[in-house]
Specification:
The complex is a heterodimer of chains A (about 350) and B (about 525).
Chain A: H1 10-20, H2 22-39, H3 41-44, E1 51-54, E2 57-59, H4 84-90, E3 96-98, H5 136-172, H6 174-188, H7 192-202, H8 207-218, H9 220-234, H10 237-245, H11 249-257, H12 263-286, H13 297-306, H14 311-338
Antiparallel strand pairs in A: 1-2, 1-3
Helix pairs in contact in A: 1-14, 2-14, 5-6, 5-8, 5-9, 5-12, 5-14, 10-11, 12-13, 12-14, 13-14
Chain B: E1 3-14, E2 17-28, E3 32-36, H1 43-50, E4 58-65, E5 68-69, H2 75-81, E6 86-89, H3 93-96, H4 103-115, H5 119-132, H6 138-141, H7 151-162, E7 169-173, H8 181-198, E8 201-206, H9 209-215, E9 218-223, E10 226-232, H10 233-238, H11 243-249, E11 266-279, E12 291-304, E13 308-312, H12 319-326, E14 333-338, H13 351-356, E15 357-360, H14 374-385, H15 391-404, H16 425-437, E16 443-447, H17 455-472, E17 475-480, H18 483-489, E18 492-497, E19 500-506, H19 507-512, H20 517-524
Parallel strand pairs in B: 3-8, 3-9, 6-7, 7-8, 13-17, 13-18, 15-16, 16-17
Antiparallel strand pairs in B: 1-2, 1-4, 4-5, 9-10, 11-12, 11-14, 18-19
Helix pairs in contact in B: 4-5, 5-7, 7-8, 14-15, 14-16, 15-16, 16-17
Chain lengths: ~350, ~525
């Protein structure tokens, strides 16, 4: 026992061990930076100026749409800020505009592009454009956000369902366990991909539908682990002591068994995240995923396959995928080490 | 006497932490030396480092075995010594034997490997060795897998394996700790017999002074990585010099119980308690019905206020099952009246009774949830049974209960916010007792309250329990295999064997003049009869 560890809870000690795992901790920091940055994609990559001054008046085009007539155009259509005429107007004496770093939204079709589509990386499009002339960098940025948010949602729903079913099975054992275990066996025998193909034919494809369908099948792996942890913990003496105190089953599960059964749940989270990202990417690649027009890494990969000469599409998407999955895997490794009960504490 | 093994200035460290500090001891040819100490005293790691088996440890010093320094020997050379000249037997034979091979194969393989014996002759020798260790029907038993043998037989098989190559030195690491009391004596006698027959030296690693008295010529006492005392067994145990040895010798608890009162109110009245478990039946019949295993049969007993009933028996005798039945954690048949009420097996209706009957379990490491603070652990019963208490009143009650078991803020600053992992085994057991006491129960079920603790700590915990019985008038249902604990604490005693109460009555009558052979066996294994 070290004095420095006095009154540190087991989870705080695990966090300390995680901090000491340099690769894992750096991965976490990098991942969080990328994630937060992608949350603000509209500010980083957009086809509207953040703020503009035109004829003495301040405009916030990023918040509100202004017709072209505001800036000296002829039509009542929304302004296309990539139009050289509008640019020239905004660059006149006394006028100015602050553009995002990458002046394209993921859906922007640049009608004024200098190169034919798909265009290799240029000074205008840093990672080139896809076969419809949309900026690859913008699509990767927005696609990363969709992937990570989707993965978060899928991980959370899968974890909640998995923990709940595993807990019920492991705690109440007997017939409950038997019945649910048989149900899981039957449920897991359903051909998941086949169902997805049928559903995507019947319903309009949407991210929500995809989330529901994948969640229906994603919880089973985790529930096995939680069940095993509950089976182990339920017969330990501290649970018996809690029963002898007169605690209800619910209180015993919530206060005693569950906190001591969370190790596999936490350890698997990064791996589940990376599996979810990969699942979404693969489905998009097959065209079964998100609705057309949604920025997605899988859709980019499919474009890369269709335009094999446009190496910049597949290469940059591939790099982003590999990097993201690597970060998640490193985090998972570090978490697993941090939660390993056999590891001794790190000296401060 | 010729010296066989001479250990000089042996130090073992893990990273920066030195766990064994420059110890010296020696073993003569044909001598039996006991290495005594508590868990964490460094006794096992010292023995392992002799054979180069201490993984990840830095070992310094000198260990001369027959004139050769074991610590400076290369690995192939050391491998030749292991097993053939120095053999080792371990505490838990179930994990030390390979579950995938029969014991005959495991012994024969060793002989083929070490001595180049042929298959047939190796098998023949294996059967002989098993016969020497007193395993009945050795020819048939050689074909048994480890799980098919009883604990005692497995340990005998381990001994046969260790002696296969006629080693000069046998390292026995707590060879009887995992076994039942009645088997311990037999294994010790066997070791003694084989030692004399082969004239080998034995280093017995143990925490049990009874074994030392019974077995060894000389004793080396270790504490916190230092050798604090060594010498002849009689001298050291009769006139211990070092305070630690004195504490160790003095660790058998003294009897200290409240006087019997014939008018004391009856708290527990159990009539013909029977507990059965369903067990699967082999074959197709098992598809349709389950067999029955009777864990406790017709147990009848009574406990009065401020009295202690000891339930004595070996593992598998049903004594812990009986404790769970009394706690209302198991379904059972028969009449059980606690303060003239019975368990209804419903959370709400049972609450008043739950408060009256509390429990302390054997293993303080598994009986405290590692993710709760001391305040949460001890205060849990208060939250449930006294929900009207304010936060500060609850904290006061928790501190009060902790001080009653000898834990307070001056020893442990920030006591309430600490987690169980910061406490030693004995302190954890005190926490478990505090958790039970905080709801002011009248009956405590003590399920092997001292078995998982070091001997000197056992004494302290028994002292505490005795003192609590006087100050609070508690009644105890004491479950243990240890006759010394029964002697120190009980008024009455029940002896259980295979689910049945074979003998019961006043503690002096039963232990002083046991009627059943089984009781005599248990009593003879206790220290009282050895000292």
């Amino acid at each position: 026992m070290h004095m420095a560890n006095v009154s540190l809870s087991p989870s705080r000690r695990a966090w300390k061990r995680f901090r000491a795992h340099r690769l894992g901790f750096v991965s976490l920091v990098l991942f969080l930076i990328l994630f937060v940055a992608s949350l603000g994609s509209e500010l980083i990559s957009n086809d509207k100026p953040l703020i503009a001054k035109y004829n003495g008046q301040i405009y916030w085009p990023i918040i509100k749409n202004f017709p072209e007539t505001h800036f000296g155009g002829d039509f009542e259509t929304p302004t296309d800020y990539l139009d050289p005429f509008i640019r020239a107007q905004l660059a006149k004496e006394g006028n100015w505009a602050v553009y995002p770093i990458n002046p394209y939204h993921h859906s922007t079709l640049n009608y004024f592009a200098k190169a034919p589509n798909p265009s290799p990386p240029t000074m205008d499009n840093w990672l080139g454009t896809d076969d419809r002339g949309r900026d690859v960098l913008a699509r990767i940025l927005y696609g990363f956000r969709v992937s990570v948010l989707f993965a978060f949602a899928l991980t959370i729903t899968g974890t909640l369902v998995g923990v709940a079913t595993g807990a019920i099975q492991g705690f109440f054992v007997g017939k409950t366990d038997l019945a649910m275990q048989r149900f899981i066996e039957i449920w897991s025998a359903m051909p998941e991909l086949y169902l997805l193909i049928i559903f995507s034919a019947v319903f309009d494809p949407s991210v929500t539908l995809l989330l529901v369908l994948l969640s229906l099948f994603g919880w089973m792996g985790l529930s096995d682990y939680v069940r095993a942890e509950f089976l182990r913990n339920r017969q330990l003496d501290y649970v018996r002591a809690a029963r002898a105190l007169g605690l209800s089953n619910w209180a015993i599960i919530w206060r005693h068994v569950l906190p001591n059964s969370m190790t596999p749940v936490v350890t698997f989270m990064p791996f589940r995240m990376s599996a979810a990202i990969l699942a979404l990417t693969s489905l998009d690649f097959l065209g079964l995923g998100v609705p057309p027009g949604t920025p997605s890494l899988g859709e980019l990969l499919a474009q890369g396959k269709n335009n094999i000469d446009a190496w910049w599409i597949s290469l940059s998407t591939f790099a982003v995928l590999v990097f993201t999955l690597l970060l998640l895997t490193f985090m998972g490794d570090a978490l697993r080490d941090a939660l390993d009960p056999r590891k001794v504490d790190v000296q401060p | 006497m010729n010296t066989l093994l001479q250990v000089q200035q042996l130090s073992v460290s893990f990273g920066q932490r030195e766990v064994v500090h420059a110890i010296d001891f020696d073993i003569g040819k044909g001598e039996k030396v006991a290495l005594v100490g508590e868990s964490g005293s460094g006794k096992t790691i010292s023995a392992l480092s002799l054979l180069g088996l201490a993984r990840g440890a830095q070992v310094k010093g000198q260990c001369l075995f027959d004139g050769q320094d074991l610590l400076r020997m290369n690995e192939p050379h050391l491998q030749g010594i292991r097993g053939s000249q120095i053999a080792m037997i371990f505490q838990e034979p179930m994990t030390a034997l390979n579950p995938l091979f029969t014991i005959g194969e495991q012994i024969a393989e060793l002989l083929q490997w070490k001595e180049g014996a042929s298959r047939e002759s190796a098998w023949q020798r294996a059967v002989e060795l098993l016969n020497d260790t007193g395993i009945p029907e050795p020819r048939r038993r050689a074909h048994s897998y480890p799980h098919q043998l009883s604990g005692g037989q497995r340990q005998r098989a381990m001994i046969a394996m260790a002696l296969a190559c006629k080693p000069q030195l046998l390292l026995a690491d707590e060879p009887t700790t995992a076994l039942d009391v009645s088997v311990r004596g037999q294994i010790l006698d066997l070791l003694d017999h084989l030692q004399q027959r082969h004239g080998m030296s034995v280093l017995l690693i143990t925490h049990d002074l009874n074994m030392v008295r019974r077995f060894a010529h000389r004793v080396v006492v270790m504490d916190k990585g230092y050798v604090v005392e060594h010498g002849n067994v009689q001298d050291v145990l009769a006139r211990p010099q070092h305070p630690y040895t004195q504490q160790l010798v003095d660790s058998i608890a003294k009897r200290h119980v409240p006087d019997r009162k014939s008018d004391a109110p009856l708290l527990i009245d159990a009539q013909k308690i029977q507990v059965t478990y369903p067990v699967p039946i082999a074959g197709w019949r098992g598809w349709f019905r389950k067999g029955q295993f009777v864990a406790v049969q017709c147990a009848t007993f009574q406990i009065k206020k401020a009295h202690t009933l000891g339930v004595m028996g070996e593992s598998g005798s049903g004594k812990s099952t009986l404790a769970l039945a009394v706690l209302g954690l198991l379904q059972f048949e028969g009449q059980l009246q606690i303060k003239e009420k019975s368990w209804m097996h419903q959370t709400q209706t049972d609450l008043p009774l739950r408060r009256a009957v509390q429990v302390v379990f054997q293993d303080p490491f598994s009986s405290l949830s590692p993710r709760m603070t001391v305040e949460q652990l001890v205060g849990e019963g208060l939250r449930l049974h006294f929900p009207d208490l304010s936060l500060s009143q609850r904290q006061d009650s928790v501190l009060q209960a902790l001080s009653e078991v000898g834990l307070d803020e001056t020893q442990f600053p920030g006591l309430l916010a600490r987690y169980p992992h910061e406490f030693s085994g004995g302190q954890r057991q005190r926490l478990a007792i505090a958790r039970a006491l905080v709801v002011s129960p009248e009956i405590l079920v003590l399920d092997e309250p001292t078995s998982a603790l070091d001997v000197t700590i056992q004494r302290q915990v028994i002292d505490l329990l005795q003192q609590l019985q006087f100050s609070k008038g508690l009644s105890y249902l004491l479950i243990t295999h240890d006759v010394d604990v029964i002697r120190a604490m009980s008024h009455d005693v029940c002896v259980m064997k295979d689910g049945q109460v074979v003998e019961s009555g006043d503690v002096d009558a039963v232990l002083g003049n046991p009627q059943q052979a089984y009781t005599r066996l248990l009593v003879s294994a206790s220290s009282h009869n050895l000292a």
